[in-house]
User: Fold these one by one.
Assistant:
Number 1:
Amino acid sequence: MSSKLCLGRNDKIDLPQMKLTDIAAKVDTGAYTSALHCHHISTVKKEGKELLIFKLLDPAHNEYNGKEYVFENYRQKKIKNSFGHVEWRYIITTKATLFDTSFDIEFSLTDRESMKFPILLGRKFLRGRFIIDVTQKNLSHKKKKRK
């Protein structure tokens, strides 16, 4: 018997450090990194520190709050998008909650406005933690709702 949790092809996750709940996420074993939909990404220098500032989701999303999120710890990385084009993206680390468990997750920040799911969960996050059953959906969210 495996101690890994079972995820379906998509679920809803919480991002507690950003005070966001039930954000739709697509499980994508073909993607290495996880991605988070955001816009208005910029960096600023403030009090001698380089800060990353962005807004999550977009005004059409029901969880959109217009808030600017600020991260002091971030990096940039070349990532190949789903169309095969290489682009530089900012990478942040935050917490994600699934099955009442908090996990560290690394997200690349990108515009996913044209995508159905604002969050993509890639192999780097999934590996060693979850078994994927593509016939299922929202397993963590269903368990959360039962409580």
Number 2:
Amino acid sequence: MKSNIKRITALLLTAVLCLCFASCVNNTSVKSNSNHESSAEQTTTSSFLTQEEEETTEASNEKEESTAKEETADSSKVTTKQNKAEKTTVQSTAKPTTTAKSTTSKKEITCTLTIECKAILSNMNDLKPGHEKYVPQDGYILSSYTCTVNSGDTVFDILEKACDDNSIILNSRSSGYGVYVAGINNIDEFDCGSQSGWKYKVNGVDANRSSGYYKLTGGENIVFYYTVTG
């Protein structure tokens, strides 16, 4: 009886030991599978990270290439603008040469000028006291003076030049009708009566406008004369 009990006890212990061993084997297998799965996940994750890094690197390279192209295009635009600016500067610099040519192309003309006050000689009693010394004995302040001016200059231009050339005092002023000759050689308007003053003729004809408006073409005979009758 006792021997049977011992056998049964031994069998039970053996069965328990087998169960424990089987349980240990299963746990080891589960841990192994778990480790394999973890390794697989890490491998997959690393592969995903590598792909993302490659994509990021490619995107960065594309941006750098695009930036380089834009910089090249911008630099070419700047160069083009600079070239245009240089061409414009050259053209604007060349223009004054044309202007200078047109300025020097004016034609010179020659006219004769006479300044006389013969009317005073027969009206010396009406002359303002102290002005006798300004009246020449023959009445001519300037006789047939040849003067060269530019085509398009006026009668007043030639009078002014002739007076400068011969140190003759000229008294003139602007008016509503143009330049007005008030006095020549210190003989002024109203110095020999209330209607006295200076007038001028061109080729023997009395002019009907200011000497500053009468343009010359060349060859004219101009006479400024002092009148006592208006």
